[in-house]
Amino acid sequence: MARAAGAVARLSGVSRERFRQDIYPLREPVVLKGIDLGICTTKWTVDYLSQTAGDKEVKIHVSPVPQMDFLSKNFVYRTLPFDVFVRRAAEVKHTEYFISEDEKYYLRSLGEDPRKDIADIRKQFPSLAKDIQIPEYFEKEQFFSSVFRISSAGLQLWTHYDIMDNFLIQVVGKKRVVLYNPRDAPYLYLSGTKSEVLNVDNPDLEKYPLFMKARCYECSLEAGDVLFIPALWFHNVISEEFGVGVNVFWKHLPSECYDKTDTYGNKDPTAASRALQILDRALKTLEELPEEYQDFYARRMVLRIQERAFSSSYE
Fold this sequence. Notes:
The protein is of the alpha+beta class.
């Protein structure tokens, strides 16, 4: 079993000023309650969503198992009319399906051209966007995207980090979110931005022994709750019920730090990408030496990185 989870703070009635002055600088997750999100929390029933957004075609993930794995791609992409998709996602057993009668569905909205356009609920789902009031806790020019999400009950998404700050707005249903501090990255068995450990509650410790060292934080979200997830915090999301939500991402760093071709908001900052490429070349160069020398100079590189780049603020 993994270590016992710490609780994420829950705060009610947080004003924009209090969030920006007292909460945001801490760079820790927090659940914000009592925020006015508009009429979406009462109007977004399955019938209303189906009728209002209509038969617009959407690209969805379909998985035969509850734990979706982006690394092994244990799901398929399919296209359905939105109204058909919503009704299927709200079902437990399906009379019509792609893989099996208990398959799980997941929508992550995309821009008109996903290679060029960001997700923005105001553009992709304007008839629904008018129902939701996005918390204006950041400057308008910092806005990056607003991602509309719908998931089947029981669906669990892979652990990953995003490079931008994020509000996870829970509109319908309940979610359980497990989070990990960026400092615990060495214990999460990363492949790019994603962790190889799918089952965070009962991990395979023979395969992932260091995972025991990762301290997790946990919270439950109900309709109307907003979870602030700071950039680089790892998160694993489980939909305990049919769920509808909106993620709002905004830029924490100056705009020039981000990859201009990044429409999903998950590419590492350009300086970080260059540094990792340089490191890969350095490690490739070390392979020219005998193993004893590789080990010695690799350890010297690690020490230099610790001396130059590790921050005492995060010890």
